[in-house]
Amino acid sequence: MKRLRNILIPCLLAILCTPSAALAQQNREQMAAYYFDHGDFAQAAQLYESLYQRGNNKFYYQRLLATYLEMEQYKEALKLVQQRQKTAPKDLYLFVDEGNIHIRQGQEKKALKCYDKAIAQIGNNLQPIPDLAMAFLTAGRPSYAAQTYLTARSKTRNNTLYFNELIGVYQQMGDYEAMTGEYFDLLDHQPGMMQSIQISMQRTLKEAPDERLADGVRRALVSRVQEHPENRNYLEMMIWFSIQQNDYRFALEQAQAINARFPESGDDQVMRVAQIAQNNGAFDVAIDGYRHLQQKGPDNAYYFDSRVGELEVEFARINHNYSIDSKSFAQLREKYLAAFAELGKNERTLPLMRHYATLIAYHGGDVQEAVSMLDDALELPRLKAKTRDEVKLELGDLLLFAGETWDASLLYMQVEKANKDDILGASAKYRNAKLSYYNHDFEWAKSQLNVLRASTSKLIANDAMELSLLISDNMEDDSTYDMLEIFADADLMLYRNRLDSAWNTFDRITRLALSHPLFDEVLMRKAQIRMKQARYDDADSLLQRLIDFYPTDITADDALMMRAELNEQQLSRPDVALGCYEKLLLDYSSSLYADQARKRYNALKAR
User: Fold this and answer.
1) Contact partners, residue 3, CB within 8 Å, separation at least 6
2) Residues 391, 378 contacting (CB under 8 angstroms)
3) Is the pTM of this model over 0.70?
4) For the segment 21-56, what is each residue's pLDDT rounded down to a tens digit?
């Protein structure tokens, strides 16, 4: 029993005393932190000296050094660092601490000697490298941090080390050519990381405050391509970067360079650039790309798609220009007919068939031929149900254009019934509601449009809201609906391309009333007529009047977007377009066009 007591008592004493010691230690740490955070560095120093003597750890050392520096006790600080260097000679960041003490005293040369000594001490052991680099960065010496990583590479003869770290340091230094060089060195070692590198660079380019980063990337790319013209990865990176900068022409030139050097596998890049250029409105570049592929002959894998692509661009150009002269129309029509003769009418040429119907009806006035083309499209085998219904909607539009409103409505109802819970069904419902509006059945049209305002499609919901408000606002102000009926008649004339009749009918509203809620809509429709007539300056003037006189009306953001595109694409006045995009973003930030306006604004600013 006595022996057992001799064993238990010391154990119990140890158990009872340990929490008390730990608690005292914790209290000292809390008090030291409190004094330090509240600027009482003398009290903090006393406590951290005691803590550092008891536990020679890095945190206590750093806090004690910081208190000495705050109190300008440089001798004590230097003594502390030098003592720690003796006990931890592998901790190279201590040389940076020593140098920082000299900096505090205005001794730049002594500090640089310390920094250089740290670099000179780097060997094969990589353990001190992260702390040393971080110490240099904290001291505001990123060039020394870069030197730390590069020296470690050299000492270990491993050029794959510290890619990400160096990229971050070079970015901090503003040395964008060196930063880009690191990306490309990484690409050399790991070609499979191209997409990851592009994502990282894209994020960095987007966050850059000015053009210096883009300029540095461009210089580094050009240098690499010139030094290694056989390296396809650099050429592909040049294409990618050019697309990021909206320089589609240069991107196509690089794609064609790849195609010349790698004829067996370079066609895909030319096709990709042409498609991206097409989607971003760079129509001349897109056509050049498609024609480049066509020149390789019908046996080329992209011949078919490039033939279709070229005609799609020609069609898109008409939509952007709003009009086409008779000579250009005749030439484009012949191109379509030649394409059908060569490529046939099938699922792959279906986009051409649909575009040709639109072209021939709305710009050529030949509704019968257009209807016949869409009938052929509906007869194609293996046509997907959704695609068939899309064609039906377009056929309904043609019938409405030709004045066959009953047949048009029947097609719309068929599509709506087959796609009740789908955007396609909502689109058909909207068309039928608009047809009711044309027929002066305003109450019914309004009830259908109010349902569509909850559509999952923002575009359909927005269109439904605009037409619903146009009807309801003018039903309230005009119990006879006289002006609204005139407006609806003129709207239908505009849809059917009876432009002079539409203009004169819209004019009746301004002649019959001194003021009316429809006046802003009249200005919008007149601007649309002038655009269809290629009288772009007149259209611009009408849109400007609408923006000036009706800035709070629902058509204001539409007018701003239309005026911006008109000045950018037809009138070649980028400064005016830029101002319109900026005003839309600032004054109409919730507009449906906000995202599109932001993209165009950034693209114009980048030029």
Assistant:
1) none
2) yes
3) yes
4) 556 667 778 888 888 888 888 888 888 888 888 877
